[in-house]
Automatic annotation (TrEMBL):
Pfam families: C2-set_2. Keywords: Disulfide bond, Membrane. Transmembrane segments: none annotated. Residues 35-128 form the Ig-like domain. This is Ig-like domain-containing protein. It comes from Mythimna separata (Oriental armyworm). InterPro entries: CD80_C2-set, Ig-like_dom, Ig-like_dom_sf, Ig-like_fold, Ig_sub. GO terms for cellular component: membrane. It is a single-pass membrane protein. It comes from the Eukaryota.
Amino acid sequence: MGSLTVFCYFLFSYIKVCICLRIVGISVPTLKQRGESSTLTCDYDLEGGRLYSVKWYRDNEEFYRYMPRLRPPQHAHKLDGVKVDLEKSTARRVHLRELTLKSRGLYRCEVSEEAPSFHSAQAEAFMEVYYFPRETPRITGHERAYQLKEPLDVNCSSAKSFPAPDLQWLIDGQKITDRSWLIAFGAKPAPQGLLVSTLGLRAPTRQRMKLKCVATIGTHRRERTVVIEINSSSWNKSFSLLIMITLNIVCVKIS
Ligand SMILES: *[C@@H]1O[C@H](CO)[C@@H](O)[C@H](O)[C@H]1NC(C)=O
Ligand SMILES: *[C@@H]1O[C@H](CO)[C@@H](O)[C@H](O)[C@H]1NC(C)=O
Ligand SMILES: *[C@@H]1O[C@H](CO)[C@@H](O)[C@H](O)[C@H]1NC(C)=O
């Protein structure tokens, strides 16, 4: 009998959780640039219950709480990379200023109701913080004089960024997908937690080639184009030099 009462009570409270409080949605920007600010929102429906607290966590560490019974109702905890702007934060949103690479993480909001229910609900979402300077990627190995039929040996390196940018090579507007032409050197660490991606290109040469390297992070892109011209002018030069020398010898002999 007693266990049935307990069971009914739990069933009842479980149903009440579903009716009384639910998170309608959490909205956390998925990709933000270092230095920007960001507004995170947590939408909930109390369905007649009374709000006890809204707490925000980054990677399980609390950084903001809103409790309507307290004066003031807001409180922010210091966390590396999390600067709360209290004036722009409310019971349903928290505004973060001057994001750093340390601001990235899993953000969770937790909403609780007052007594007697004390029901709570939570939702979470990840925010990535990137740094992508205006600098275009650097191409190396194209400066040397290539001979026709000598394979191209060039590299493209991104500027120091975070996360590691994706790189892509295009020859005369054609995206290179042939893996045997590409050498992925991976991402190398740089100061301040940044990364440099490098992608090599080993392709057959043509008389004139327009090489483009594109670096992307999400929808952001930086690109650089170089033109390689392979001509036989050097060979022509030595050829004409040879002719001149021969002519000179002939002239000397004649005179
Ligand atoms: C390309 O990068 C690799 C790895 O950093 C390096 O060993 C190689 O010399 C580079 N080649 C050119 C042409 O820059
Ligand atoms: C050959 O290369 C030289 C410089 O290396 C350039 O000035 C010249 O225009 C080129 N000739 C052709 C036909 O592309
Ligand atoms: C010398 O250069 C010209 C273009 O500048 C080219 O058309 C010609 O074929 C070259 N001559 C030789 C012998 O390679």
